[in-house]
Amino acid sequence: MSHAEISRVAMEKREVASNKLKAFSERIGKRSLSAAERKEENGLLEQIAEHDGMAKRHIIASAAEEEAMRVNSPLQQMGVNRGFPAVRSAGAGVIPGELLKRSVEISRGITTTGTGKAFSPEEMAKKFVDLLAPQSVVMASGVNRVQTNAETYSFPVIRSDFAAGFVGELDDLPTGGFGAEPLKVTPKKIAAADMLANELVEDGGSAFMDPVAKSLMRSVSLGFDREALIGTGANKGFVGIANTPGIQTHAVTGGFKDLDAFVAAFGKLEAVNSKATAVVMHPTTWAGLMALREASGSLKPLLSESAGSPTAGIQRAILGVPVWISSFMPGTDVLAYEADQIFAVWRKDAGFQVSDQFGFLKDGTAVRAIARAAIAVPNAAAVCKITVTA
Cα separations (Å) of 25 from 38, 156, 169? Predict the structure, then answer.
């Protein structure tokens, strides 16, 4: 028998055992189990687990064979598909709904009540984080992404440099001045979950799963963005960029009337050998800046690059530095920072997870998206927060 046939038989046997377990649960109801009934229940669970394991092994083997056939096919090598789907590299052109739909399909063959978590392979985790990036303003602004399996990740932070000086021949060389310490970062859990009716899952296919997957990713990425920008460390979150101790500040009184505040903030970053590569602000703040005019009585926006019509488009940038918009930023604050000096720490077990066990008696499938992440700013001086007061 082929791997596909063996996995199909195993899943059919699993379905039989699952139906027996469902009938057993309906017969027992909510009363306590006797020793014999407990043994019967455990036996059914063991059968399901055994069939799960068999199906999982042969599903993986079948997928590997199919991948090898696609890669080695002369038609594939000639660039002619003729019914063979194109082989894609990990994370390239991936549709979110395909990932979640595949997760649901596989989980129904390998998930048991004793697995601890439904389905979270490493390859799915990488794609999940990659798909999060376009949804996240902070990730899209170019900050470094660090992936780790560790519960706590440590950055070596240099607080002071070596002391150098001119010396004569055979004189003692100057020593001291160097100071360093570790900055420890603990990724925090960010999650979204819900229960889906099996009718929707089975009838909708990837067309239904795509918006579900996008919604899960959006919820998680927005949760990460909120903390990454303005988090205080409260409510099991982490400290965000705007509240990191030691960042530089610049105060503006009476609102933005020109771009001088940005010139000053960028200058403060330059003074510490840093450079502004990203600016993050609230949408209303950006709208106010676009309303500034080049001169009194002029219709031409100050931010317009065109020397002609004021109807020309405005690039989302200030003095050549890209501007990112986030509703999580307070209308009174603007962040300017060097993205290379900020680190987003992600644990590798982020991913889609599904289970039909939680909703077994409701004919439902549970879906969830979990990420563990935090922001680290080892060089706090590479961030400048502009605060506007009345």
Answer: 11, 55, 89
Q: In three state form, how does the secondary structure of the chain look?
A: CCHHHHHHHHHHHHHHHHHHHHHHHHHHCCCCCCHHHHHHHHHHHHHHHHHHHHHHHHHHHHHHHHHHHHHHCHHHHCCCCCCCCCCCCCCCCCCHHHHHHHHHHHHHHHCCCCCCCCCCCHHHHHHHHHHHHHHCHHHHCCCEEEEECCCCEEEEEEEECCCCCCCCCCCCCCCCCCEEEEEEECCEEEEEEEEEEHHHHHHHHHHHHHHHHHHHHHHHHHHHHHHHHHCECCCCCCECHHHCCCCEEEEEECCCCCCHHHHHHHHHHHHCCCCCCEEEECHHHHHHHHCCECCCCCCCECCCCCCCCCCCCCCCEECCEEEEECCCCCCCEEEEECHHHCEEEEECCCEEEEECCCCHHHCEEEEEEEEEEEEECCCHHHEEEEEEEC
pLDDT (0 to 100) of residue 390 = 77
Q: Are 155 and 183 in contact (CB under 8 A)?
A: yes
- In sign, the C-alpha dihedral spanning 333, 337, 343, 349 is positive
Q: Name the token pair of 158.
A: 């240099």
Give the burial class of 50: count Cβ atoms within 10 A of its Cβ; 0-12 exposed, 13-18 middle, 19 or more buried. middle
**What integer pLDDT is reported at residue 126 of this predicted model?**
63
Q: How far apart are CA 104 and CA 205, in angstroms?
A: 10
- pLDDT (0 to 100) of residue 28: 77
Task: Give Cα separations from 216 to 6, 121, 355 (angstroms).
Answer: 34, 18, 15
CB-count exposure of residue 181 (10 Å: 0-12, 13-18, 19+) = exposed
Please tell me the pTM assigned to this model.
Answer: 0.64
Low-confidence ranges of the chain (pLDDT < 50): 70-92, 110-121
Distance CA 31, CA 143 (A): 55
Task: Show Cβ contacts of residue 270 under 8 Å, excluding neighbours closer than 6 positions.
Answer: none
Residue 321 is which amino acid?
V
